Batch of 4 targets.
Target 1
Amino acid sequence: MSTPVLEVRNLRRDYVTSGGLFRPAKVVHAVKGVNFTLEKGKTLAVVGESGCGKSTLARMITLIDPPTSGDILIDGKKVEAKHGVTREMRQKVQIVFQNPYGSLNPRQKIGEVLAEPLLLNTDMAIAERRDRALQMLIKVGLGPEHFNRYPHMFSGGQRQRIAIARALMLNPSFLVLDEPVSALDLSVQAQILNLLKDLQDEFSLTYVFISHDLSVVRYTADEVMVMYFGDVVEHGSRDQVFGAPQHDYTKTLFAATPRADVDSIRARLARKAALAS
């Protein structure tokens, strides 16, 4: 049996809120003992409303915040967060944020943005870094003519393609996709979802897909994990969760979410075009 790319064991994260003159300090249990494993080439979608703990979980598995307790194993190796995470371990996980423009240096040309991870983490020569950046730019649907342009010269969808390309430059073990399409127009959402699917098929990529929208992850997820106030209330295959949700919260969340999978996006755009004509 192969080693899971990512394994999470009883992961917890507590925050202590500051008290006041008449209010004692409180402990907030943001994530309460989460367990899961993720195999290579698969997508785990973590779903829930704002405040459910999914973003806190994302910050822990991307090694930004240490857990209060519990273990994270990447490629079978335990992350020693309390003793300082090694550079090698940090290279194994990359994140794509909701707002790509906020994560791109406006003073850097796109070629520099893509080559920078290689400059900081490898001994590649300049020409080799440039070639790899160009290849990755093409892989995400852009061209050599974009190499020397600045972030403000691109649309939101193009910036997200650049952010995805940068995240892949170091060949990470897995990507955390934090609401990667929620800030985009519906038609662009479909393009980015298709791009992520194509890249996963080509490179056997492993994704943790963070979303508040069950319908978006229907198109991409192999497994779905539903969080509610820090707890995992449901975890199963996509077909199990969508076909026969067991928890009342999952049923409510699913019923309240407009369908945003690729086919539904196309149908909605067609209806909009028909009304406009």
Note: The two ends are 57 Å apart (CA to CA).
Target 2
Amino acid sequence: MTTRESSDEAYVVRLCNRLLGETALTQHRFDWLLGDPGAGGRQARLAVDAYWPGRQLVVEYRELQHDQPTPHFDKPDQLTISGVHRGEQRALYDARRDREIPAHGLRLIVIRPADLDSDGQGRLRRNEAADLAALRRLLPRASDEHRVIDAFRTWLVTQGWTSVAPADRWTDLEAVRGHERLICEAKGRTSEKGVDTDIAYGQLLRRMTNQAAHIHYALVVPSSHLETAARVPAPVRALLRVQVYGVEEDGQVTRLAG
């Protein structure tokens, strides 16, 4: 029988601890992250897999049952306090974590079996060398780009968007609002404003694999880089459905006209 300490989740958290040089608070509960009301109206606090307070970082390890129907875990014949079966409730609570954690100023990283060395059933092979290399790419570093991403994600929530797992793992941020989808590329402060902004535009162009009108693209940069981003004319940006946003030092977000 698999215990939490021997689970893939615990293995991933231990590797993250090694890379970050700090020990996470596991199964941490925030006062503002709540489940649906149960009997008597009480709302239980939802746990997160790992939280590093000093880094304001939360990591969630989501196994296959979080992304696809799994009867063993979903128990479709049993309704939860949310009035839906366990699989639907899991999706509701995952979406709540995705929304509330960034809205409270924390960085959220979601890791899935496919991000690491796993088999077809989503079980990790526990190839530490390969998994550590993958986690080095996935875990955030202290950089201005991450400041820009975090501020923009928080702002998106205030505009009715919900952050979702990107379809392309190299996309910085992806969000949905109703039928709309927004695919974002972000850059932080750099001494090579022109070069890095041009690279960001090129990265967005590579993401344009679907011409559906409901898909939009965003270039998100420090406000000091907006003048450089504006070198691509507004009519061209409109044709490509690219919106440009600037992030101030205090986290305020502005949209480039046009």
Note: The mean pLDDT is 86.
Target 3
Amino acid sequence: MTTQATQDVLIVGAGLAGLALGRELARAGRRVTLLDKSRGVSGRSSTRRLAADRLELPLDHGARFFTARHPQTLAFVQEGLAAGWLREWTRSIPRWQGGTVVEEGGGHPRYAPPAGMNTLGRELGRGLKVELEAQVVRLSQVAGGWRAECGDGRSVEAAAAVLNLPAPQIVPLLEGAALDLSPFQAVAFDPCWAVGALLHADVAGADWPALRMQDHPALEWIAREHTKRSPTAPHTPALMLHARPDWTRQHLQDDKAQVAAALLEHARDVVGPLELRASFAHRWLYATPTVRYPHSHGWLPDSSLGWCGDWCTPDPHGPRVEAALLSGWALAEALTVRS
């Protein structure tokens, strides 16, 4: 086992809340290490590059876009717009209901990086010490703090630990600690099947960037994904589909190819004929928090243990990208003020 020098703060999970937290702590002079089981940062703000016939496009199969209502998020948006890695995608996302497209009234800016939503994590994580493909299998209290042990033998110790994971994944990590796990056990999530597809041609007659599906038996979201990308860059038309939670639960264990075929057929019923170049399906077990932790973050000073994420409640607007950022920033403020 390889153990690193003790850090000030260990963050398990390099999703947006953990990265926002890590950036602020690092700016305050803390030694921070983030561990994540994936090959990239950003958590559910995830992007997959799909290629066919020498054409490639990033498809956001997790978070669809993000909004900015709070001063700190607005400042982050301005930072991205000025640097060029962020652009406003749209102010109107119509609703599909019973075969009719109903335009949205009073729209507001929705932002999406042209290179994909995982750009948010890459920008937040610049300069941070992030170890990827580091699956934490055990988290234990040790003298002076916490030790995280990874499946590949890596180990990190820190004076404080923060969990930026879906609450159901926190429970098994802390089962050996003398802690109240009920705050995590009370949190609930909806799952979601996501399907991305590259097309030979765009949807005929479509002038909408995306559709919010109302009362559809299978689909919750259809996006013309290429409309997020730079208008000056060459690209191929693409769709991103998100299934309803109830449909996802009914097909949770289905084969990915079967799910892709079924949801694309449902999409054809809505938008008309589709000629595919390539497609994929991805299952999110913890896609959308439905029962959330009632505070912006958690912190146990006696145990030096905290948690953050979009399943916390930093504002009343729901479990969005902005909620994840606000949760991480709120915990960072609490930790830096207390020190």
Note: Residues 90 and 248 are 27 Å apart (CA to CA).
Target 4
Amino acid sequence: MASVLVTGGTGFIAGHVIEDALRSGHRVRATVRSLRDPSRVAHLERLGSDHDGRLELVEADLTDDAGWDAAVAGIEHVLHVASPFPTTAPRDEAELIRPAVDGTLRVLGAASRAGARRVVMTSSIAAVSSGRPREEVRTRTEADWSDLDHSAAYAKSKTLAEQAAWRFADDHPELEVVAINPGLVLGPLHHAAAGTSLTLVRRLLNREVPAVPALGFATVDVRDVAIAHRLAMETPGAAGQRYICAGANLWLADMAEVLADEFGPLGFRVPRRRMPYWMLWLAGRFDPEVRLALNFVGSPERVSSDKARDELGWSARPVRETLADTGRSLIDHGLAKVR
């Protein structure tokens, strides 16, 4: 089995990537920004002890050169998952773009110097379909790129980071690069501090919004994203490829219906009434998280995961299972409570 480095080990996706790699028999090293707070890494230490001690934690930060050469030493494959994920729009988009791009190049440079064979990076469908006119309705594939002139800061950060990785790969043919482009990632948490992408489900369960706006997302289970990373690492022909991993568009109203069915009997009053645009706009004046959503109202996300299915043998579990497991996890971690 291979020796694998996973970056951003305490993150939502990275925790599942680590768990899947360990379950598959790989020896894993994971980077964390700091080992000084035991509560931040306790879940990872438990994972390691549950898998014969095959997990090693090391310190390395995307914004600093220190630690990366040591982190990649002796590593065959790097799964570069770490990247900033905001809950609110930054005042300066460079706050997101700079660490995403520079951090990606920092990891790739260390991997190349160490003689690693392959880097699988976590990109996003935000690097595929963002910034496109609402009237331009078609299914996006790996051949598509987001329009940077009309994209929000997060989409720009993911697009520019992935494009930087492909330029690096062109200049360093000895290092294989693969990109995984997931949709909205949902699923169970390993610890309460992770999972910014679960904000939508948390807000619905906690009835933090009075009604449901016309927002659509191509969702994917975090456990399936983890499997996609491993398959991209293990599949010889994946080198040099992008892989979209996301399901069909899911309207937030449909998400709310599933959550109401699953958790209504437990006392959760999930909103089902449709929210008009003016109400969302008004709420966005006072709530930065809501303000981020305004750009996506009425625009379904249509992407194809056919390539991942055909070339990696990847498949996705039913979205209802994902939503139910997400809700249960939020409840178990005290992030969703009956009001």
Note: Residues 94-114 form the longest helix (21 residues).
